[in-house]
Design goal:
The protein is mainly α. It has helices at about 5-50, 70-85, 105-120, 125-150, 175-185, 195-220. The model is unreliable at about 45-55 (pLDDT under 50).
Length: about 220
Amino acid sequence: MASVDPAKQTIALAGELDRQGRRITALENRAGDIEGAVQSLACDVATLASYVAPGGDKKLRSWLLVDNPKLASADLKALAQWLDAVWLHYPDAVLPSCWAWHPALVEELHVLRLAHVEAFDPKRGTVAKAADWHDRLRPHAAARISAAYRRCDLARHAPAGPAHQPTPATPLTGHLTAIAAQWITSKTSPTPTPDQLREAHTYTQQVHQQHRQHQDLDDF
């Protein structure tokens, strides 16, 4: 029986250990890839679940309340396509260049688009729904949008422009717990404190400023 060279045996063992180490590393990398894919798939499923109702219908979702970036982007793109395909064909349709900069306008058009989709849906759509959209929903929306935004332009949203102002936040929210507690115990409202009066005054000034800006847009 031939003797085994310990040095060669050690080299062969080291080579085999190296090969096994590379295989383990490759498997670990694949496991990491699989884990990442699973996490991404879970995120996509959660996004889809928030977009589709149990019966397969799209959920009614407010643009003002959407908090998922993918859904927000999808909503805006779908709305833009609908504006080209439907809204802008009507002679009284108003769409300022800054339409996407007005959350309330996006909400109005978003709801109008959903109503249009519902009216002409192959399963749920009816002549009555379509007629109501044409006779009532669309003309009323067109009148509101024209009155509020017909004179606005994206340049007015620049830092020095009159439309570059945030919407005032709901005032006095820091005092709601105390107001609620007094209402529960005595069915009365608390007497306003000096700090509350100052906060209310600041809010009123902000609202007046916003109204003046809207008036400036009307006079433009």
